[in-house]
Every structure is written in structure tokens, then in C-alpha cells.
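Team,

Forwarding the record for the chain on the shared tracking sheet. I've put the sequence and predicted structure together so nobody has to dig through attachments.
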Amino acid sequence: MSDQQIPLCNIPLCVDLDGTLSKGDMTIESAYLLFRHKPALFFKFLPILLKGKAPFKRKVAENTEIDPENIPLNKDFLEYLKDEKKKGRKLLLVSASDEILVRKVGDAIGIFDECIGSDGERNLRSGNKRDYLVARFGEKGFDYAGNDAPDYKVWEAALHALVVNASDSVAARAAEVSLVSHKFPPEKGQIRSILKALRVHQWM
């Protein structure tokens, strides 16, 4: 049986969070909340960026409270995921955001078998995410849903690419590096939703 003939319910579906399932970015949102409510800690943690993004993300996640119910989600894609879950498919939420935040979001949604994120040492992004998933499931042993350029390397190793909330150029590139099984275009009012999620008016 070829890869394309394997029933999808037997292939784990790994889902990116920031910009894919969510319209915003959990790291930016949590860093903003820390800056707003605990500015002294925010500036205390900034030098940690010299050690890498993962340690900084962990410090921010440990010191902020995110309300998962207020996170703007891509509704059409979420409904697709719920249908796949009903079919018995294994779903993993795999994000470069810190795992503390990823688990909060994943647990609130309630359809994911595992919630995986950056762990304070490894920034689970692009090549690191690809290497992690290949180690878990093997080359072409998983499907991956993403939305942006850092996902190219993951799509290359995936059996199928699901392109969610992506620009035309990203969607075209995804089709070059992988077999695209589904596309979920940006929802109407996407820019407004992102600005609302980031509370830009409060920054101003």
C-alpha cells in the first residue's frame, strides 16, 4: 500500500497553534500581558533572550495568565479537526509557543491527544519541530497543518500538508514541498481579528 493509500485516520495530524488554529500569536500575547501587568518582570526577563527564545518564552509563560476562552480561533479549521477526532484520528497540538500555554489552549478545546510546545530549552519551531515529529512518527509518518514560512521544513517531512490561514505565496510554496490535502483560506475580517487579539488599541 502506498503512502497516499493509507487511511487518514491512521495518520496522526499535527497542528500548529499560532496563526493556524489561533489567529494570533500566544508568545506575543503573553509577552504583552507581562509587559502590561508586570513591567518590572518583563524587563528583567529581556536579557534572557540572549540565551535563546525558549528560555524567555518559559519565563513569560510562568508569569502570565492566558484565558483560553478569549483566544480567536479559525472556526472552519476547528470544525474540521472536530470531525477528524470523531473519526478516531489522533490529533496533536504542536507549537513553538511555550508548552505551558499550549496545554492551556489544548485542554480548553478538548480534542487533542497531546499538547506539545517549547520546553524552556528547545524552541519547537521550523527544523526543530520537523526533527521532533520525524523522531516520533518517521519521515512521511504524519500530516501537518501550518500557515507560514517556518512550516516549510515541517511540510517537507509530512505525508500531507494542510494549509491554514496562509497567504497565496505560502500556499504555493507548500504545494511545492508537500502534497497539500486541504486548504483553509483566511477568514473575512482576519486583520481586524488579529489586531483585536493583540489588543493593539491598548498598546496605543
